[in-house]
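Try it yourself: sequence plus iron/sulfur cluster, in.
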Amino acid sequence: MHKNGTRKGLTLVFFQHYPSVANLAAAYLAFGLYTQKVPFRIKVFRLYTYKNSGLLKKLYRFFTKTEKVVAIGCFSHMLPYVIAALKQLKKHYPEKLVILGGIGPTEVAEDIIREFPFIDFVIKGCGIEPLPRLAGALLRGGRDFSDISGLVYRNGRHIMSNPVTPASKEAFLNAIAFFHLVPGALRATQYDILTARGCIYKCTFCQIPVLGGGRIEYKDICKVAGELKLLLRARKNKRFHFSVIDEAFVVNRKRVQAFCMLLRRNRLVMPWSCYGRIDRMDEKLMRTLSDNGCERIFYGFESGSDRILKKVNKGFCVADAIRAILLSKKYFKKVIASFVCMYPFETKKDFLKTLACMAFLESKGIEVALHPLAPIKDSLLFRRYGKHLSLTSGIESTFHSRINRMPQECTQLIRRYPHIFYLYYFYKVKDVTNLTRLLAFGMKMNHGRRYVVKYGL
Ligand code: SF4
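Structure, out:
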């Protein structure tokens, strides 16, 4: 034990957005640490209980109750809060060693290490293998981190950025989500599972085509079935809902059929959901999915304007999308169509077409959701328009609070480091006044505003 009370060990911190959904990343990392025999405990910060006020203070207090090595997994929209809280933490507990990981820090890992001396390490990409190696080395007092995949850290005045090696891919393919090691996870009613990673499509607003190289890495579906069985056993056979969160689940229909067959053979037919792809769906596939428990399907429709669909390289047109979505309603209890707006080249006419499309689908019992486009680093769109971002509290975002409602410490960070907190910015659109007005109208159609995840309001 350190002289001021910090215990020597590893605390893994995760955020839980909804009470019903267990954290998949925590379950994967628990698997990695457990199999590598690294002592750890997981602390889950339940974001949904902190919606009203004082999030930053509570987060700081939460961080103080961690052990000497603290590893935090976080999304981009939590990054300003996490960084502001860590700054205070390191001031009062300088002996703590801080590791960041997850989607948010991965994209800006080098910048974080360059700008924030109170953060010691960032792990880029999949942490299942690198985290146990780093934590093990730190707990033993080791100082050589040069062969840890995807690790970014300081070495004197230099910033070291280790390449992400293929071993991380192996780790993902072999990992099993150990939900039973994540506090509270067995009380959840919904579990995300991944059967594959990557996508073959090339939507210009998405980073996957650029980072994933247009490939899909498939997990062995027998392993996925094993994962579901393990979870069912841990829950004492209490059934649950699972969501297949692969970006391109329906791309390989033979595999989808084999997966459904495995569910049946292993008595794992439970309610589940997945992402669909307009141009891959037909009646036969819909029937197979629905006959084997899939009751909710989610489509990225993106825009009601063919001009926009073409520009973002979506690969289908509005008429095809409407046809596939209406047919889906015959087979699935819930069909969700997600739209995006505020593309840098969007006009009022395009946006009105999206609203008309949403209203039409809603009248047919389809759940619709509208999101203003978030700039995604490494996407083709960001490469072209990333220099034209603006910070505004006028646009309602789906994923984060308006900046004028955030604590000052966070807004200062967002203003000072736009290259790190770019997710809080929006692409500049020509007809911004009209589009912002339409956005407010469109977001009212977001069913029950269930897709809105905001903190610190
Ligand atoms: S938006 Fe979806 S379909 Fe398009 S490239 Fe990204 S993951 Fe693939």
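One thing you can check immediately is this: The domain at 189-388+428-446 is CATH 3.20.20.70 (TIM Barrel).
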